[in-house]
Predict the structure.
Amino acid sequence: MKPSFLTLTLLLLMSTISLHAQESKMPTTPDFTKALEALNEGDILTCDSLLDEEVGKYPKNGYAWLYRGLLYTRFFQSDTALVFLDHAARNIPKKDKENLAMAYYWRAIAKWKFNDDYNAFMADMSTAKKTNPDSADPYMNVGNMLMERGDYAGAEQEFRQALTKPDASKADIYQFIGRNQAAQGNHAVAIRYYDQAMEFNRTDETIYMDRSMAFLNSQDEQRAIDDAVSAFKLEYSRNSFSWMVAMADSTALRDKVIARIQEEIHHVGNPTMWNYALSRIYDHADNKPESLRYLLRTSKTNDTPLYHQIADLFAGVAVYDQAADYYYRAYRQALTDSAEQSRIDHLFGSYIAYTFSKGDPQKAIELTKEKMATQEELDQTLLNNLMLFQYYHGDYADAMASLEQYRDSFAFTYDDFLFAGKIYRENGLKERAISEFMDCATENAIEEDSSTAELALALLGEKERARELYEKRLAEDADVGQQFNSACLMALLDDKPMAVNILRQMFENGFRNFYRVERNEDLRSLKGYGDYEALLKEYKNKFEQERKALLAVLEEETYEAPIQLVGE
């Protein structure tokens, strides 16, 4: 069975909230017993509900309070945990030192987590140590707290004390001593402690990751990479994957990381995860053709083709025809897999959007109408998109009909008023257009959506006021100069050089929707302007080179040699 790359499993780390007490010490009431069963199955909500029933019937059940406190500290992010843990500390029998110590231990964690109370944390951890002198956990947590606060000597002392306890996990403790040394810049010493940790546990990816970082800081790059790869091979987890890929963000290390991963590909039966790692590395390096190559290879060996990710890549580099094609494939795959309706709708919506972006508004209109016909209720997004497609296609009468339907069914935003004005303008309804523009150029509109108000003012002929607002907005946020609306505004203000400059910034930042630029009515004053025409030609040529490189990879990776017939 091939590993399914798209399946993400939630690891609840139940060991974090397990108790050290013997089962015989626990109550055996029905709700409490069922709560423990639900917890073991990872059903947190059912466990909490049953524990709530339990403490309602038996408010002196300190163990039920303890489990609720653990759940709320670990999962529910609520300082209600402190109330539950207070009840636990008062009601767990004093002779049960293990669980009573656990109540103080977790109350200390809750006080730090929710109240940022260091002194209370230390006080409760001290009580936990005295209550159960055989437990290493309080020493480990105090040591970790001191290490984070820069008290490395104090942290070392706590970790050493933890080593003397009967329940000590020597792998964990040596790992934390290593981290404490690494935090002080003693990476060679840290490596020795990580080596000791591995003598007790060679299956913990975090030890390999820690040692990888220490090797990297010691300029032992190859061993750092080897440990990063070893960590990933243990569990194929998100954390180890991210660390391995992040190492390749360094230009100096990238080739070495890639070469090491290539070695793994040659020695494993299924290279799915390794190919995906290469895809991410090349993507981070902005090498889209190679990123696509390895994403396509990942898709081939994965249980489910990665059509959605491939579509996202094409969309991100503005290869809209291929984006539309792969979104459609992803949509068909989602139907086959009986995916959630929200995912199916999202993929189909993306297919429509990129059908439009590739310059086929008529097809986008047809697809949108087909989709709307299947809806029991009028969908706001679909109707809004239909208006947009009709407008850009030059179907102004149809766009106005859709507008009136939209106005009857949904509340207008300022952006809607602006778009309505443009539709009325193109239908020759000047007075209605002016009214719409005025609605999105009020003081309230300026305060809420200055960019839209600026365009409306420009369309109303109040150009000085429009420029004043734009320059004020630009002073507050320099990035506004790169927005599409800003290019449109400069064109309306007849500041052609500035409009072209903003468009150039947009193209440099990856914008490639030439169809939208050439069909936008607010930019029509630029047509025939030499710098504008030269700009479009320059970036269309550049984009075409990028596009050809991607399509060449697509052809190479999806090509299948013809089957040879007998006798040929």
